[in-house]
Sequence to fold (200 residues):
Amino acid sequence: MEVTLRRFELSDVDAMMAWASDPEVAAFCRWEPYESTEPLLAYLRDTVLPHPWFRAICLTGGEDARPVGAVSLAPTADTCRGELGYVVARAQWGKGVATAAVKGAVAAVFGGEVEGLERVEALVDVDNTASQRVVEKAGFRREGVLRRHYWHKGRVRDLVMYSFISSDHLAEQSRSSRNPATQLQHFSTICVPNRMCSFF
Ligand SMILES: CC(C)(COP(=O)(O)OP(=O)(O)OC[C@H]1O[C@@H](n2cnc3c(N)ncnc32)[C@H](O)[C@@H]1OP(=O)(O)O)[C@@H](O)C(=O)NCCC(=O)NCCS
Fold:
C-alpha cells in the first residue's frame, strides 16, 4: 500500500464525509461530526482550498485517488513554527496510514514546500494514545505535558507537546516521497490561532 499526499479538490467532499461525519473520529477534534455535505463543502471551499498547506491522504498514487484522510500544517503566530493536524477514516485505522502521512508531510514541509519553517509541533490530548504513537513513530520528540491547556467539548484538557525541528532526522523513505508537483507555499500569508486538530 502506497500512501500519497495531494491537494484537495471540491469533488473530495463525499470521501471526506466518511471521516467528518464519524463521532469516533471527531472525539479528540475541535469540530462536531458533520450531518450533511453542505457545510463540509463550504469548509472545503473557504478554508481547505485556500489553506497554505492542507493535503489529502490517499492510498494509491495519482491525482484521482479518493482521500482516506487529511494532514495539514497550520500557521502559528511565528512563521518559524507550524502546527500539525491529521485525521484518518476509521476503516483505515491501524494500518500505518497516519504514520506514513505524517512522515511524508514532515519531509514535504521541510523539503521546500513551506518557506522559513524551523519547527513542526503536534499538540495531542493526553488520552489520545493512538495519535501519540503516530508522532512518536514518525520521529517527533515528546517535550512535555501542557496542563489544563484548552477547553475541549466542555472539559479542560491536558495536552502533550511534540515537536520535529528542521535538523531532526527524516526517514529516508519520506525524503524520497516528496512530491515535486506541489508548489512553494508562502506560509506567512495566513495566520490562524493555534488550534488542535482544527480540520473542520
Ligand atoms: C490518530 C489516528 C490519526 C491514527 O491513524 P492510524 O492510521 O490508525 O495510525 P497508525 O496506524 O499509523 O498508527 C496508530 C498507532 O496507534 C496504536 N493505537 C491505536 N489505538 C490505540 C489505543 N487505543 N491505545 C494505544 N495505542 C493505540 C496502533 O497500534 C499504532 O501503533 P503501533 O504501530 O505501534 O501498533 C486516527 O486514529 C484518527 O484519525 N483519529 C481521530 C482523529 C485524531 O485523533 N487525530 C489526531 C489529533 S492530534
